[in-house]
Amino acid sequence: MITVKNNKLINYGNRGMGLESDINLTNEYYKEKKIALIYKKPIPIKVLKINSTKTRIQDAFYEQKSTLDYSGIYKEKYIEFDAKETNSKTSFPFANIHKHQIEHIKNVMYFGGIAFLIVRFNYFNKTFLLPGKVLINYIEVSKRKSIPYSYFIDNLPEIEIKYRPRLDYLNKVDIS
Amino acid sequence: MITVKNNKLINYGNRGMGLESDINLTNEYYKEKKIALIYKKPIPIKVLKINSTKTRIQDAFYEQKSTLDYSGIYKEKYIEFDAKETNSKTSFPFANIHKHQIEHIKNVMYFGGIAFLIVRFNYFNKTFLLPGKVLINYIEVSKRKSIPYSYFIDNLPEIEIKYRPRLDYLNKVDIS
Q: Which residues does B19 contact at the CB level (< 8 Å), separation at least 6?
């Protein structure tokens, strides 16, 4: 399985894909149980060269994402979110959230959709739901470049890893 | 501008992209005027070969789409649709709608989203909104392999081409 991190391709081989794998399994469960319809979007690429029969891409690169990775419908609401993992023990850095993605999160909320991040601290093996509103507030009001781990522990819902559904994140989404 | 039709890449150069171009212009207008947030999804690809620095795709092909090309939010509802052009003078053929896409349209409707196609008959330069429900009914009940042009004329809303917004399709979507 090949995925992309910071515009680089990473081959995860057989060792699973951590958070992304957990989310994909959960989305299959949601669909099967008719709870929600959530899809991972394809990764945007810029094609530079194609073959003569126009069936094969011979040169291309990954473009910066301007939206979030997953979107779908839950309780008739538009849902969009991204999955982020960090190896930091102290905080979740904003470094790998692009400016366009921040704008997009604001837009989704403005139009009545639900936007959030699922953040995993790999060191602690703990996963949290970070609502778009909290993220935007942190970025714009506090001017910090990260959210401390302690803030997650004290204020944000933890999403536990279980057997089925693997990572019941929708259970932590506030539909109000 | 390079796009994909029937898994082949087509370079439209400077001559515009017809229906797709009209929809993209309209979506920009919708976003600017705070009417709706609609995005074109990236095209799914299968990567076969990457370079050593993992920044460049060297061999890949287009995968069959299992969802529709555009998605977003309108009046707090989940919207998803595809744009289809036909050169036929008599009917809109189902040949280029994949089985997975039909399943997906049904799922979107089941979960309370709005799914439809925007169909353009190039010969007549006429564009119509084809609701998911009508499409599914035609495919499953009538067992036909196409919808006659006369059915569009008699029963479905025509979307006129104007200056701004270019193709006001949301105006024809029934949110009820």
A: B83, B84, B85, B118, B120, B127, B167
